[in-house]
Amino acid sequence: MPTSDTLIADYLERLRRASVDLPAGSRAELMQDIGAHLAEKVDATASEVQVRRVLDELGTPEEIAAVAADQSGARPSAGAGGGGGGGLAYDTATVLVLLLGGFVIPVLGWIAGVVMLWNGPRWDARHKWAGTLIWPAAIVFTLMVLTADHRASGHLGVVVVIGLAVVVAGLVAGFGYLLRGARSSR
User: Fold this and answer.
1) Angstrom distance (rounded) from CA 49 to CA 53
2) How far apart are CA 65 and CA 71, in angstroms?
3) pTM
4) Domain extents for the chain?
5) Are 67 and 56 contacting, i.e. CB atoms less than 8 angstroms apart?
6) Residue pair 23/72 in contact by the 8 Å Cβ criterion
7) Which band of pLDDT confidence, cut at 50, 70 and 90, is reported for residue 154?
8) Of 162, 136, 140, which is closest to residue 150 (Cα–Cα)?
9) Taking residues 120-132, what's their average pLDDT?
């Protein structure tokens, strides 16, 4: 369970990334204003629910950065994501490249997806590590199924089909997990 300090730090980090296209002075003022507001509204004894309520009242960091960009005349990049892109199209493309790129261009496709994932503004470290490790885990599991001694059962074909079905289901679940993670940070 995240602590109040962790929730606020994550929120401010998202705001920092989302406001990267603002002029330096505007960005520093925005970060200072939001930090001061949070310090005023959230005391050391605040519960997770109270902190989430305050953050929800503020709006998403991306919304705040977009308003600040409008006020300063800055032109934010797509989704105000700060170098890593943003929005549903980027999120979906990232996950598709990550999970399917390895089929199209073995190894390099997966690496491209990992780079996109780690540069994406909406995923936290937990999602980034899960996305990074899903392909290696799928490969290791597949190799274990294929190299296991199936002579005792005599059902090699069934074991391989079930093993591959588990791998495909894991990849689909990973796709959903990453997209839900991106959506929840908006």
Assistant:
1) 6
2) 10
3) 0.50
4) 4-80, 87-184
5) no
6) yes
7) low
8) 162
9) 85
